[in-house]
Amino acid sequence: PLLWSTGDPNWHETFKAPSKETLPTTHRPRATPTFEPAHPRLQLARPSAGKRFKQDAGKAFELGEQATTFGSKVHDAFEQIEWLSENDKNVGTTEVTDALLTCFENPEIKGLFTQPKTPTTVWRERAFSYVEGDQFYNGIFDRVVLHHEPSGKIERAEIIDYKTDRIHEYNTIKDACERHRPQLEAYGKALSKIIHIDASKISLKLLFTSVTQLVEL
Fold it and tell me: Is residue 141 assigned to a domain?
């Protein structure tokens, strides 16, 4: 027989495991903090990306490797010329020289490479880059001619971009110009920022070497 006792024999039943809602604050999981980046990430934008276009699959490989290589040589030869001189008749191979001379038979093209009497500065194969908003732009000017006032201030400018596109019924001059337009307009915007003149004072020109034609956009 039980002679003596004290307290509640079922004392343990008064204790329950704490629910998630009643966990002490110090034990609750902490949310992972988020931070805004100290510097926004820049998105790379290439002006020449605007050259992508749809084309019939059968024509995609019409321009063979040999023609592409020749076009590159003509492009490179143009980049060597600051202003026309007698020495330029010997630039590159005979075939490349013939291609250049054929281009210079076009008065408009020849005029681009004839040194004017007014002060000018010529850039050839000049790389550039600039940031606008969250976009980072870079590219290469084939040829830029800066026209100066007598004081030295830049009055206007020309951007000339050499194109070796093969022009035919499936890729007309008009098609090629519209395909290259976004690139040249982006180049004009970049030059405007670099030399600090209004974009309206910058002319954009495409020189198509395969058909010896100059087009101003």
Answer: yes
For residue 144, what are the contacts with CB-CB under 8 A and spacing of at least 6? Answer: 122, 123, 126, 157, 158, 159, 160, 191
The number of distinct structural domains making up the chain is 1
What is the extent of the structural domain holding 136?
43-216
Place of tokens 């008064």: 14
Which tens digits make up the pLDDT trace of 107-157?
Answer: 999 999 999 999 999 999 999 988 878 888 889 999 999 999 999 999 999
CB-neighbour burial class of residue 172 (10 A; exposed 0-12, middle 13-18, buried 19+): exposed
Position 81 in a domain? yes
- pLDDT, tens only, 47-78: 665 544 444 444 444 545 566 788 888 999 99
Q: Is 72 exposed, middle or buried (0-12, 13-18, 19+ CB in 10 A)?
A: exposed
Three-state SS annotation for 81-105: CCCCCHHHHHCCCHHHHHHHHHHHC
Distance CA 213, CA 102 (A): 10
Cα–Cα distance between 134 and 44 in angstroms, integer? 9
Asked whether residue 204 is assigned to any structural domain, the reply reads yes
pTM of the complete model = 0.70
Task: Evaluate whether residue 15 is within a structural domain.
Answer: no
